[in-house]
Amino acid sequence: MGTGKKRNLGAFAASLVKARSTAGFDSAYKFYHKNGGRRHFPFTFFHYTRVEKGLALPDPAALGRIFTGLRLLPTQGEARELILSYLKDMLGGAQAADELLAPLFGSTAEAGPLPDSMKWMRQHAFVHLSPEEFFAVSGSEDSYWCAEALCSDQGAWTAEDLAARLSIKPAAALKALAALLKCGLVVKDRGGKYKCRHDGKFFIYPGRLEGMGKGLDAIKSYWEKAGGKQFFERQMLVRSDPRSMANYRLALSYAVDGSHAYATHAAAEGSAFYLVRTEIKEVKKF
Hints:
The chain is mainly alpha-helical and about 290 residues long.
């Protein structure tokens, strides 16, 4: 963490607090620790609080770790706002920054900010899993499906009933639930039934953090093993360029996130887990 000579650092602090809240972290503590603490950030929590208070700026090398923790894509309007506010503070204020940066950023096309509906969902309906919670969920096929089932249902379940519903052995369900209890993602009531601590919420995996790839690959393998029939498919081949596709990527991510609006946390006729995913793939140079 570096501060350099004393200067007004309020622009970046204000933008950071706004972006952190929009991402679904309602406190500096949750943002820092849900992203792995010192395992992810090259600075202490105390130094991070100084950044949010406008008392320090992160070093440029550390800025990328903050962006990753915020789950921001480079083309998002929020990312551009953060970068500009950082440069304004680095250059000593808005006036000097505007004079120097206007030729670079003044006419740059940018993706729009997060839609209001998505802001609300990220702030109120999403739960960011810590690395410990994520590895407890992804650690085994049984723990993954137990976690998804409990956190996709408002009821409380015995281990036996949950095992029967998921077609797994009761002993395997108990082992999986023990791991989920240990990390705090699941709670057990006095009657011996289990339920998700975050009732009616949706998981956000720490997938972009360093070292999380193994867990993501494991979850993908659980999906593939589950099989299931295809419900819908739509494809199109277009000629484009990387910059345009980067902007379009953001629109697709919003569309996938929007599937949560059609989710249910109660049993319904024919209810099932549906995998909704999207892909952009370069297939041939032209």
